[in-house]
Amino acid sequence: MKQFFEQNKTFIAIVIAGLIVGAAVYVGLTKDREDGEEEVVLTPTECLATSEAMVTKVLDGDTVVVEGGHHIRLLGIDADERGYPCYNPAKELLEDLVLNKRVRLEKDQTDLDQYDRCLRYLFLDDVNINLELVKEGQAIARFYPPDVKYQEEVIQAEKEAINNKVGCKWAGIEPEVEERVEFQWEKLTTEKLGFDVVGACRAGNYYGKEMLVEGVVADAYRSKTNTIFLNFEKPYPNQCFTGVIFSSDQYKFVASPENYYSNKTVRIKGEIKEYQGKPEIILKDPSQIEIGK
Question: Taking phi first (over 0 means left), then psi (-120 to 50 degrees means alpha), and beta for anything else, what does residue 170 get?
Answer without folding.
Answer: alpha
